[in-house]
Amino acid sequence: MPPRSKIYDLPQDLREELNERLVSTGFQGYDGLTQWLEERGFKLSRSAVHRYGQDLQEEFEEAMGDVRKTTELARAMATNQEDESGHLIDATARIVQDQLLRISIAMRKAEDDPAKAAKQLGSVTRALAEIGRVSLGQKKWARELRLEVAREAAEAAEGAMASQGMTRESIDAIKRDILGIA
Hints:
By secondary structure, this protein is mostly helical. It is built from 6 helices and no strands. It has a domain at 1-58. Helix 4 runs antiparallel to helix 5 (114-163). The protein is elongated and about 90 Å long.
């Protein structure tokens, strides 16, 4: 395992500003970024900043790819059908869960202080739990909606079948089929 990057020894606010500068410059200008860090009292090699920038760029491009996929999925769902079964929420939840897992791995690599890492991991865990609650709630809502639609269809069918002179036994059997009752 390679040694931990000195970039992770920077104060968090400075590292966040470095991340912003890397993204805003299109992951270029490493000489200027090295000089900027030195002006703030941190002497790092250009190659250390470049390696860190390359890793951040990979993560950034992967995250942007996920965003594009989710956006395309949302467009397809909106134009093709109502998302009653929750495919969009499920897909989004999977992407967010994947990102939270990556964040927790990155935090574990970046943090030397176990107490701080545990606190951050607690935040990630709460986010995962919230995603689970949203997904379960949506699935429950979709199940209830399908049941309500089936009930309405069964009632409408019952009226139509009764007016056609079907027996009560036949009507009840068809209603059970519509409602999915064995």
